[in-house]
């Protein structure tokens, strides 16, 4: 299905028409046009850029890797870069979602089909009454969906932290697998922060400074979006703090366990070494009292039993065993 | 009992009247109306929203989880989100307390009955002389109660830190239970910070920027509230520092204890191993001096006693035993 | 002695008169009146508040615990809270020192007699030429004394850090007592920071924004006070850094010592275990070469001496002994 | 080849002419002149400075070591210092790249030939259409190349961090070589941050405040450059976080391994020590049950096998072996 | 030699005249007078203060210890405090260097002769052409010399960090002496930061806000000085990061070494303990197979050799030996 839409006076007039028709619609300022490009070629973008008068730099940025979320303000249009995130087999993957916004057209450019643009159009349809705000409305729907993905991730991380906390005081020591899970969680949280933190500036730029898209009706919605972005940032910060707590408690547990092991080791070593010493004494080829006689057997056995018993009780009392 | 109140010229005129009557009272700007909703349904809120002209976004926010304390400023009303906290079995629980404030009406929305609104009304009654400041006065009473709960928590945490400090230099090493208590305390402090830190911005927004509710007489009271919020923040920060001190001293103690144990282990191992070696010597089936004769018995016994004694004294002197 | 003073045109006219006379003097704007309350009752303060027209909130704050240093600006007066600190048996104690400042009256309210107000009056007398600046002059003297106490504490802490540094590289390992001293020092530094850091804002508010007390002649003195406050803050920060250095070096020393002990342990264990193994061999009831003959004795003895000697020299060479 | 260029109306008119001709061209404000100095002597620079009226301080700065990236704004010219970075045998090396920019002349001063100015001229030629923006265009090309080098380094560091992460959970413990690699990586990252962080201010100064070179057409290009600089900074920050994660996980692994080793040690020590104790018992020269008879042999052997077996199974069950 | 100078119209007119003549020269606004006081008495300063109309507070500050670098702006003069640093036997020492600057007079006050004022006058002479800028020129020369001392220290610290880095991966473990060197280096770096960080504000205040001394010609020189101060700050920060890297890598090495030692310990313990157990078996006084016969000797010897060999190879393979 072709991802195109035409709104007029806040009403969805047409949908799914060929991209070629876009140029006809966009010339009429009363129209609001949207279309979507998924993993476009340079040529695809070139023709769109010409149509809508987009700046070369913005078009180039679509193909540059390792971008950061941002808004570039050009004379006649905005270029927005954001990152949608999802987990796959526990690893964080990001999909670049770009948007060109002119006064009456929005072009969304997805890096791959992993980002389901259908979910965005569904949102637009659900909030139909606001559609008369044009591009500002469409852009809000797009960014709201992106930020919600960030939010869901933080929620997921929160659950994982909770799980790790529950394990922390269990008897069994942490396995290599647990360590890996903890490591990956922290790595993923850093990955989220990398693309979520700059969203603050992105949304702030859009709803504060920009005259191009401002409509008073959308203002609270952008403020709400900004609030979501803040929540993601603050929650992530909170999770970092909880992770530090976890990590440091775990380290301290590890030290605690080492001390426990050393005490046990010492205790048992003593309980075994002392009888060995005694039998050594009675194994000497010298005429010690009881050498070769029953009294020797009894004294040796009794000394061994008493020495071991005393040691065992003493260690038990001090809590070493 | 129905939680409703009607003030006129700073005097409590009526109380406990049905929510249905609210609409009659609220239309008269000389009246100040309050009513409370506890865990309302969407329908409940919908009807209130219509009555008072509340923005859809604000109403939606009541039902969204994982909010952060904030003030949303709409044209005709404010929406305030805050979190009241209490400890249950050592775990921190939060209750969302929202408020819609128009020029002459305050609607409080509690997440559950855990938050005792009766305590708030009691405060209002105690400070009756200020009641003529209308919604500004009522809102102050509400937030003051919420912030006081934060403050009591910090006081409680302070006591717990004090207790942990006292344990730190006791003879007995920290148990698993102590570690868990320390972990939970730090987790709870992070939980408090999460909802207490944004209160700074909330109170600041209310008493600095907002024309809607500003009355000169309430200004010092909001400033006082702001001061409370700051105290919570600074005190929590101070407790964090004390906790780091605790944690790091504890880690260092743990290392200290490990060294002590290792020294003891070494000492006793030597005191046992040396006699064992000597008896081994006298256990050889070769004609060493004293083999099979009394002189052998005496020399063996004397060497063992002297060797052990010398080692014991040497270790005692170096402080290893 | 009653703590009251009356200045007129910068001259100390009367001193030690009953508090009851204050109301007569204060009504004349040409007079500057000071009096001191130590641990006053609510009734005491109530009557003063009425006399001087103090705000209820300010009066309430005197009795609230866990305040933070601050200036509250009311229409006709200022309320200043600060904390004087002193060490007792190595523990930090704070005494709340409040002040109400109107245009021509200063009321100082001390929490206890630990704070010696006589030292403040002595300062006032020493700087007599500035007395014509009225309340601004008196307040400066008070705060200067409070901040000097903070400063003396930092100096004291600096000496303690220096002492700990000297101990760091001594032979003997840190005792439990040293650990406690380090812990307490850090705790005290946190306690100082808690009440010293907000003084920046207090002094800043007084000498920048406030019209009530501003006199050009006092300006450099308040700036000087501000500079003292900054010095306390910066020096404390510097001490924190030195403490981290201390703590981390100490941790690393501890690890170093553990390694040393482990090496010694290993070395001696080997030196004892090898002869034991050899005597074990010669203790077997099998006809090994030299069994029951003098050659066996000599070979056993020689092997033991050589093995032990070689091990001892080898370990000595590697620096393990 | 002499590195000189003359542009007129955005067209490259002449190239490679002797530096001596520069003075003729530069006097005509319609011309834009560039020339390059590689590791110049003081005399070289002196003559250029006189020609173009450069400030003594700027000229001196070229020869001072340990500079930081900066823009110095003089009345008639700018002096820009930046650092180009490259890795050689894993070590980070920096090459100082300075530039004097007057209204119609750019002088680039390279510390050494390591910085390939040919790459910069190639960039200028590739973006020929912008050449009519004169010095602003030329300077952008230069800085863009420098910042790209920073960017490539971060990408390289990212790959190295990724590799280290993969090794983290491999069976084999980290070798000294791995530790060194980790150490060098972190050192290099600090080295990059040292010269990349101040670039923010450099680019910001150029595209915000400076009237000298401002052309509206270049504005988006400088903004794009600024964005690159930000990306370098944010990515480096992100890598630091990942490195902390790595380092702390590694430390925790190390503790984990130590515990594992201690457990194994304890277990095997017990499994060996217990039979030794039993044989000691049967080696005594006293008439224990079975002394000198077959029953003794059997009971000794059976006890040894059972004791060892029981210990082995017990330790296996607890996961110590 | 008396340290006095008289400039007129940027020319050094007279030098080394008695301080008593200063008052004659200073009254003529066309003159610029400098004189130096080294470790002056209170009386010395008193008379100078009277002559030049200096504020009492500024004069008092000269004698107060534990100052911080600062500029105090008085109506007719500035008071500048800075600290010159030098290393003696590896310890950092600071010398307070104060300056009073009026419109046409500069008084420098050194704490001790360690600060060589001759180096400052030499700088003044070297930059003679700027002397017509009067006090602004003289003050710049003074501060430039102070900041250069800071800069040289950072360079020295950088070299020391480099040296420590080289040692880090050497075979031999860190000695107590190395630890002390590391500790002292970090302490010295904190000492430098203490007096270097506030210089930013000092220089900033002088070249931005101050009308008293401003001359357009000196502006780039003060900006250059500010740049030096920034470099010191940034470089110190960079060194801190490198030190953390060093310290943490060192800690990790220590843990690594402990693990290595433990493995070796375990391995050798096993290689010795197993033969001991076997000889114990053959030492039993029970008729085991081979008891008292040649076959016993051979079987015992062969089992011992094989067991030890197998263990040695096994441990070698796992890299424990």
Automatic annotation (TrEMBL), chains A, B, C, D, E:
The keyword Transmembrane applies. Keywords: Cell membrane, Membrane, Transmembrane, Transmembrane helix, Transport. The chain crosses the membrane at residues 265-283, 295-315. Signal peptide: none annotated. It is a multi-pass membrane protein. It comes from the Bacteria. Coiled coil: none annotated. It is found in: Cell membrane. Belongs to the CorA metal ion transporter (MIT) (TC 1.A.35) family. This is Magnesium transporter CorA family protein. It comes from Nonomuraea mangrovi.
């Amino acid at each position: 299905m072709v991802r195109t839409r035409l709104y007029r006076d806040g009403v969805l007039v047409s949908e799914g028409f060929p991209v070629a028709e876009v140029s006809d619609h966009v010339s009429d300022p009363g129209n609001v046009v949207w279309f979507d490009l998924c993993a476009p070629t340079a040529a695809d973008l070139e023709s769109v850029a010409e149509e809508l008068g987009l700046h070369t730099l913005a078009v180039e940025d679509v193909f540059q890797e390792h971008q950061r979320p941002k808004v570039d303000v050009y004379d006649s249009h905005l270029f927005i870069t954001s990152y949608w995130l999802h987990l796959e087999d526990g690893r964080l993957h990001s999909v670049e979602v770009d948007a060109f916004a002119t006064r009456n057209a929005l072009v969304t450019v997805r890096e791959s089909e992993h980002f389901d643009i259908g979910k965005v159009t569904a949102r637009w349809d659900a909030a139909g009454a606001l559609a008369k705000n044009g591009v500002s409305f469409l852009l809000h729907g797009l960014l709201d969906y992106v930020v919600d993905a960030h939010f869901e991730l933080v929620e997921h991380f929160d659950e994982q932290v909770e799980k790790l906390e529950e394990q922390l005081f269990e008897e069994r020591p942490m396995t290599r697998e647990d360590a890996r899970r903890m490591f990956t969680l922290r790595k993923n949280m850093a990955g989220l922060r990398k693309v979520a933190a700059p969203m603050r500036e992105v949304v702030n730029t859009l709803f504060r400074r920009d005259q191009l898209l401002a409509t008073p009706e959308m203002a609270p919605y952008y403020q709400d979006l900004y609030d979501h972005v803040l929540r993601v940032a603050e929650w992530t910060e909170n999770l970092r703090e909880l992770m530090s707590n976890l990590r440091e408690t775990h380290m301290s547990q590890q030290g605690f366990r080492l001390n426990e092991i050393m005490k046990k080791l010492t205790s048992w070593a003593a309980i075994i070494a002392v009888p060995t010493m005694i039998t050594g004494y009675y194994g000497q080829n010298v005429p010690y009292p009881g050498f070769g006689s029953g009294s020797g057997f009894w004294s040796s056995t009794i000394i061994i039993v008493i020495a071991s018993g005393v040691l065992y009780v003493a260690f038990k009392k001090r809590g070493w065993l």
